[in-house]
Amino acid sequence: MRRLNRGFVRCINSLWKLEVPKSNANPYNPRSFILPGISNTYFSFSRYYSTELQPQLSNELLKIMEQRLSAVEHRNAFLENLINQPEASPAEYSKANKELRKLRDSMDLITELRTKQKEIDGLRSLMAECLDDKDMLDMANEDLVQALEEEKRLQNLLLKSLLPRDDADERDCILEVRAGTGGEEASLFALDVFKMYERYSQKKGWKFEVVDIAESDLKGYKLSSAAISGDGVYGKLKFESGIHRVQRVPVTEKSGRIHTSAVSVAILPQADEVDVQLRNEDLRIDTYRSGGSGGQHANTTNSAVRVTHLLTGITVTIQDERSQHMNKAKALKVLCAKLYEIERSRIQTNRSKLRSEQIGSGDRSERIRTYNFPQGRVTDHRVGITYHAINDVMQGENLDVFVDALLLQQEMDAIATFSSAQ
User: Fold this and answer.
1) Which three-class secondary structure state does DSSP give residue 141?
2) Residue 158: burial class (beta carbons within 10 Å; 0-12, 13-18, 19+)
3) Positive or negative CA dihedral for 391, 396, 401, 407?
4) pTM of the prediction?
5) Measured between alpha carbons, how far is 362 from 13 in angstroms, rounded to an integer?
6) Whole-angstrom Cα distance, residue 48 to residue 402?
7) In whole angstroms, how far apart are CA 27 and each of 38, 64, 154, 357, 409?
8) Which of 31-45, 93-107, 269-283 has the highest mean pLDDT?
9) How many helices (H) and strands (E) does the chain have?
């Protein structure tokens, strides 16, 4: 009970700042809040508000998952038998061993789940046998409650392990923030958004390395980019791509009118050398004198670099460093990320539309979020969440409200696909 109360208090403390649609949330409506619309199908309550208790999967989903787990167990047994056969060829042995390594984590969880389920059966049998012994019954019941909670935890971990994954989720990423409509005010907001992600990265313990910044006349950011490194960075930030709209009174506005401006955010997975092969004959590299701030040295040497990929026409310009070689290295890193994302998008389009229409494509042309400063609120249009603490979000403190909701929505869509595929 004490553990439940702590979770309930945290739920209440967070909900007063969070606004969601209050009636008949439609799971097929992108403006409808994700949790109420889907909880009855898959979970008895949501993880989003409390991490103390585990969500209860529906009987239908458990039945489907059990079929998958049995298939994994049979496949694991077959592969173990194969590698123990002396007549197995080296190629067969290597292939089977590689697949076994992929199944190892799931098999460990399955073994743990089976052990826990046997414990639950034993406790239920004990309770049936000692109905007249109140002390024994209470002890067995307390152990049973804990065992059932642990069973739910293992079932949820196994469900996540069975869902399709994006291989790029574990990669580092390139962040690009570009001022859009709104002139100087858009550039100033682009600066705010770039700093928001920098603070958020610091809060997460990620490495945030500025790649390039092009300043406006009022020291806003016309275009800024950074390399973010850490555990699962791209998977965490990938749904931040899109149009971020701001409504506020600009510093240049003397009559106090509220203006609407926008910036575009792009999150690109960083590419390895094996992912993208850059040939010298496909590149045009130009050097020139840097502009803007940077001191006398930056403006009098050819340290700025412009790299053009001739096959796609993509151009990357970097002038952040004093060294031409360092600027070239940064430019090639950004170019590789852009080319890798193009190839990833092509493959995903050819296979299937894996991203949910509720979340959106993550395309830079899609308006995803509005920051309304006069009303002190931030609204994500894909999941219909409004958070009434805009300063906290801009400081990178509570951006997880949106990030976690979008990741949960992705997981729910994957579960829906998982169920419909049966």
Assistant:
1) helix
2) buried
3) positive
4) 0.61
5) 31
6) 11
7) 6, 21, 26, 11, 10
8) 93-107
9) 11, 12
188 C-beta neighbours (distance < 10 Å), count: 23
| Pairing of the two strands 242-248 and 367-372 | parallel
Would you state the pLDDT for residue 74? 93
Nearest-angstrom CA–CA distance, 336 and 362: 19
Instruction: Compare 75 and 350 and report the one with higher pLDDT.
Output: 75
CA distance 342 to 204: 28
Give pLDDT, residue 1: 37
3 state DSSP class of 64: helix
Q: What pLDDT, on the 0 to 100 scale, is given for residue 289?
A: 73
Sheet with 377-380, strands from edge to edge, namely 18-19, 385-387, 377-380, 367-372, 242-248, 259-269, 173-179, 221-229, 207-215
User: How many degrees, rounded to 5, is the angle at CA 173 between CA 172 and CA 175?
Assistant: 150
CA–CA gap between residue 264 and residue 69 (Å, rounded):
43
Three-state SS for 74-103 is HHHHHHHHHHCCCCCCHHHHHHHHHHHHHH
Higher pLDDT, 421 or 196: 196
What CA–CA distances, in Å, run from 120 to 113, 123, 144, 146, 167? 10, 5, 6, 10, 36
DSSP string, 166-194: -GGGGS-EEEEEEE-TTHHHHHHHHHHHH
Closest of 54, 158, 109, 60 to residue 416, by C-alpha: 60
